[in-house]
Specification:
3-stranded antiparallel beta sheet; DUF559; alpha+beta; DUF559 domain-containing protein; Arc Repressor Mutant, subunit A
Length: 318
């Protein structure tokens, strides 16, 4: 390989643009290097070191035969600062869902960018798009659409069973807030199944932090006779801070919903018992309902909760 071309590949971590090549070597060097299997074309004007090819299947587009990070860097080189990683690719960059092999690289571009889809590369043209904050941020050295918009854009692309969990996780991990998601939704004119998405954001804004809490909110813990619970209430007991699933302040009752896959391990159970005892020292009664009982006996759970609350009439702890 021409040493000047090799130096360009080293400097670009295995990638180089045609523009940079032509600044250093004659144009025929590209064809010669490709024929000698010393250079591979990934996208128009974007070349790479053949050592980056990690999938032997020659039926795949070349961009699909390199590692995800390489494909993303190549795509960003291709758009030359005019676009950012978006949708399912951005979701992976944000660490919320890993893209499976074979799934293309997604990019957002301004409407009149002149660039289009390529094999293993899907572009979306947006009239309101600018490659600048707050729409675009840098994460892991890559230009990526901000998380709130990414989650909304991915809503129709994901299987319905996976949609809610990603938004719940992003909120639980404090990567975003229900308020920021709602504001982002207001910026999008059309979203498939918008009603379900809006309803989920309402539940998250109310403090629900799991599918079980959302189910309980909708079917058990609202309506006639039920107080307005404070969800994720922050309580200080000595030097410790505890967050309560659902707290009826006037009655000093904390309702905890134990998920189907949690709280079953003896060590977890011991943690729960110690926590409940600590709350009892400041007069807070903890009532726990399992996933099985809440979903199988919602009427009985509701009646028990109302009865417990009716018998807890002492003033709120100061």
């Amino acid at each position: 390989m021409d040493p000047r071309l090799h130096a360009l590949l080293v400097r670009g971590n295995g990638l180089v643009t045609r523009r940079d090549i032509l600044r250093a070597v004659p144009a025929w060097t590209i064809q010669t290097s490709q024929r000698a299997n010393r250079l591979v074309r990934l996208l128009p004007g974007i070349y790479g070191d053949p050592a980056l090819i990690c999938h032997a299947n020659t039926d795949l587009p070349t961009l699909a035969r390199v590692e995800r990070d390489v494909a993303r860097r190549a795509a960003l080189l291709y758009v030359d600062g005019r676009g950012a990683l978006s949708r399912l690719t951005a979701l992976d960059v944000w660490g919320l869902r890993r893209q499976p092999l074979g799934e293309p690289v997604y990019l957002d571009l301004p409407r009149r960018s002149g660039l289009r889809d390529r094999p293993h590369l899907v572009v979306a043209h947006r009239s309101d798009f600018a490659v600048a904050p707050p729409q675009v941020v840098i994460r892991g050295g890559l230009l990526v659409i901000r998380l709130d918009r990414t989650l909304l854009d991915c809503w129709p692309l994901l299987p319905p069973v996976d949609r809610s969990s990603l938004l719940i996780r992003a909120v639980n991990d404090r990567m975003t807030t229900p308020q920021r998601l709602a504001a982002a939704l207001g910026e999008v004119a059309r979203v498939p199944d918008r009603g379900a998405l809006s309803g989920l954001l309402d539940r998250l804004a109310a403090g629900c932090r799991s599918p079980l809490e959302i189910w309980g909110h909708d079917h058990v813990f609202t309506g006639s006779g039920m107080p307005t619970f404070t969800r994720q209430a922050r309580i200080r007991v000595g030097a410790r801070t505890i967050y309560l699933d659902m707290f009826a302040e006037a009655e000093r009752v904390n309702v905890e919903l134990d998920g189907a896959t949690s709280h079953g391990d003896p060590a977890e159970r011991e943690i729960d018992l110690r926590r409940d005892a600590l709350l009892a020292t400041v007069g807070i009664l903890v009532v726990r309902f399992s996933h099985r009982r809440l979903t199988a006996e919602p009427v009985q759970v509701r009646q028990e909760t109302l009865s417990i609350l009716a018998n807890r009439t002492r003033p709120m702890i100061k």
